[in-house]
Amino acid sequence: MTKVILFDLDGTLLPMDTDSFVETYIRELAGRVAHIVEPETFVKALWGGTNAMMQNLDHETTNEKVFEETFLSMSGLQKQEIWPTLDDFYETVFPTFSYLSKPTALGRQVVEEAVNQGYRVVVATNPVFPKAAIYHRLTWAGLDQLPFELITVYEESVYTKPHKQYYEFICEKLEVTPENCVMIGNDKQEDMVASQIGMKTFLVEGYVIDRGDPAYPVHEQGTLEDLLERISRQQGIFKTNG
Questions:
Q1: Is the pLDDT of residue 1 over 70?
Q2: Terminus-to-terminus CA distance in the chain, angstroms?
Q3: 141 and 93 both lie in a single domain
Q4: Residue 112 sits in the same domain as residue 174
Q5: Cα-Cα-Cα-Cα dihedral sign, residues 212, 216, 217, 218
Q6: What is the DSSP string of the chain?
Q7: To the nearest whole percent, how much of the chain has pLDDT over 90?
Q8: Which pLDDT belongs to residue 242?
Q9: Residues 6 or more apart in contact with residue 108 via CB below 8 angstroms
Q10: Residue range of the domain that includes 220
């Protein structure tokens, strides 16, 4: 029986074109730190730190620490030279990017219905962003103040998607087996890989990301409207009898 529902954020509960969002975010961030580091050097270090997080499988090292070490090494900077500017960016500038998303009331309705049905709920967004950036996006989506038991942020996470260890880490945190979980997302690789440890998966249509390979099982799929109906009617993988 499903006890926990994991929700991806970008492109799932918060409809958006992720590529367009990332392009604007990086351009604006590079401009904000141009007085500290040359933009080309900054962008290379930013991607280098991100890739390091994506590859890290060290259970003892947080994504934040992995990013910090790689970024500072590649940029040639000391933390105190740039971190205050980065922190200010995420607190004051990042919130203005809300126009790049297309919030829908359906996202909140889906989560509220899941809670009303007795499910434990998790925001399983790829933890490659600081907490501030992820919480701002939750606010854009109208998902703040909901009783999520866990929101994966880079300060507190040790793995990223599409590693199966990311999903195992969540199960460990919540003391639940993968067989009692459903992962809901729009990415056929990063989200549907949860099936490899025994989770059921639901692919949200609209902003589907598919790199082609590898291919993972999609147990069910549909729009947010379809998802809301299936949860409320206890259909398919949301049947109360499992």
A1: no
A2: 4
A3: no
A4: yes
A5: negative
A6: ---EEEE-TBTTTB-B-HHHHHHHHHHHHHHHTTTTS-HHHHHHHHHHHHHHHHH---TTS-HHHHHHHHHHHHHT--HHHHHHHHHHIIIIIGGGGGGGB---HHHHHHHHHHHHTT-EEEE---S-S-HHHHHHHHHHTT-TTS--SEE--TTT-S--TT-HHHHHHHHHHHT--GGGEEEEESBTTTTGGGGGGT-EEEEESSS-B--SSS-----EEE-HHHHHHHHHTT-GGG-TT-
A7: 95
A8: 44
A9: 141, 142, 143, 146
A10: 4-16+102-238
Averaged over 205-214, what is the pLDDT? 94
Q: In terms of domains, do 205 and 132 share one?
A: yes
Angle CA 24–16–150, to nearest 5? 105
- Decide: pTM greater than 0.90: yes
For 19-43, the pLDDT digits (tens) are: 899 999 999 999 999 999 999 999 9
- Average pLDDT value for residue range 2-8: 94
Residues contacting residue 35 through CB under 8 Å, at least 6 positions apart: none
